[in-house]
Amino acid sequence: MAPVRTTGAVVAAISVTVALLSLFLYKSKPSSKKLPSKKNPRNGLLGAIGNTPLIRINSLSEATGCEILGKCEFLNPGGSVKDRVAVKIIEEALESGDLAPGGVVTEGSVGSTAISLATVAPAYGCKCHVVIPDDVAIEKSQILEALGATVERVRPVSITHRDHFVNVAKRRASEANEFALKHRKDDANQRGVANGTTEKTNGFQYDEEKQSLFSRNCTGGYFADQFENLANFRAHYEATGPEIWEQTGGNVDVFVAGAGTGGTLAGVSKFLQERNSNIKCFLIDPPGSGLFNKVTRGVMYTREEAEGQRLKNPFDTITEGIGINRITKNFMMAKLDGAFRGTDKEAVEMSRFLMKNDGLFLGSSSAMNCVGAVRAAQSIGPGHTIVTILCDSGMRHLSKFFSADYLSQYGLTPSASGIEFLGVG
Questions:
Q1: Is Transmembrane helix one of the keywords (predicted)?
Q2: Beta strand pairing call for 150-154 and 280-285
């Protein structure tokens, strides 16, 4: 019987050893619930801005023979590339003392920058006042109001007119400063009366209905000035450009994008070309904009146009957010090798093609950027890596760019089955 007992003991010992080993291996496995260090939660809303994915746009890559990559800026919390700019503008203004917590940030915008400012301003204890043209898609105003911003819609006029939306926004900042100063003086006088040391002399009394533009506790105003404020350029030079460089491992041949303020195009192009002077950077310009002529010919208009024959509004493009007829301080920082023209019809067709083939629901400027990416691919040939910006989604373009009735009025109803509208396929 001894051998049997010995065998039983051995079996028991082996069983215990296997059990302990299994337990050890189980404990040694990393828990699936534990987040890797790189996946730790970001710090609030502001921490979620930037570091957006760079994706391969499969349909365009396969059609052109180039690797066409899109930076998904529509995944920022405020839904666009302008979140980066809003943060940079407000942070620099707070650091300089030009803006104080409790102040109101004013801006003239066709939508995206305004929405970004309204999104991030509360994180800094500030409010937002926006002036936009009244022909901009109505959903942009609705989003701004839902975000708590004060919205003024004004008629489109030349930038030289005092009531151009940018000029009105600048004026509102000055008015907010005057308003805050008047209240500070009034409060000081009221304290003096309470202490029996002075009398109220200005006779000012707060009327909420008359002073509805600014809250009673407004500490002043700050004009964001996205077109001329170089914080716009710095946002992309310090973040967007480096992200693209890192995400491509430096393997990028071309960057192409449209320009409104010019900040994205300037910041990214300057950063990339400083890293590798062989990287080509191009502008894609919509109808009605003079930037294409400026880049390709060195002048904003042709000689005939400069002699006064140019109409005030030669073309009312439906591509919102890009295209301009002046050179901004931000655009002046761009390092460009050339430019392409795009049309409204191409942008419309591109947006529908990408939605059908890639599931990408993009806004008008994003679609135009993709037109630019294909133009670049046609220009330099297959085998290259091309990066562009997917600025925002189609969510804020429903009443115009994605409205069948609106497009039909201008003969822009999409009809292409592929991208033959660009001479491909």
A1: yes
A2: unpaired
Q: Quick one: pLDDT at residue 186?
A: 58
Alpha carbon of residue 276 to chain centroid:
25
Question: Would you place residue 5 in the very low, low, confident or very high pLDDT band (cuts 50, 70, 90)?
Answer: very low
pTM: 0.82
Give buried/exposed letters for 222-253 (b at 16+ CB in 10 A, else e): bbbbbbebbbbbbbbbebbbbbbbebbeeebb
Tokens 């301009």 sit at which residue?
324
Task: Give the phi and the psi of residue 339 in degrees, each rounded to 5.
Answer: -150, 155
Set out the domains of the chain in order of their start, with CATH numbers. Answer: 46-75+237-420 (3.40.50.1100), 100-187+213-219 (3.40.50.1100)
For 178, list phi and psi in degrees, rounded to 5.
-65, -40
What is the secondary structure of 32-51 as a DSSP string?
A: TTSPPGGGPPPSHHHHTSS-
Question: Tens digits of per-residue pLDDT, 50-103?
Answer: 999 999 999 999 999 999 999 999 999 999 999 999 999 999 999 999 999 999
The pair of three-digit structure tokens given for residue 129, joined into one six-digit string? 């006042």
CA atoms within 13 A on the CB side of 338: 11
Question: What residue has token string 């393997």?
Answer: 251
Report d(CA 52, CA 56) in Å as an integer.
13
Q: Is the pLDDT of residue 395 over 50?
A: yes
Nearest to 396 by CA among 52, 153, 79: 79
Task: Please list, in sequence order, all residues whose beta carbon lies within 8 angstroms of the beta carbon of residue 368, skipping any fewer than 6 positions away.
Answer: 258, 284, 286, 319, 322, 342, 346, 347, 350
DSSP string across 84-122: HHHHHHHHHHHHHTSS-TT-EEEEE-SSHHHHHHHHHGG
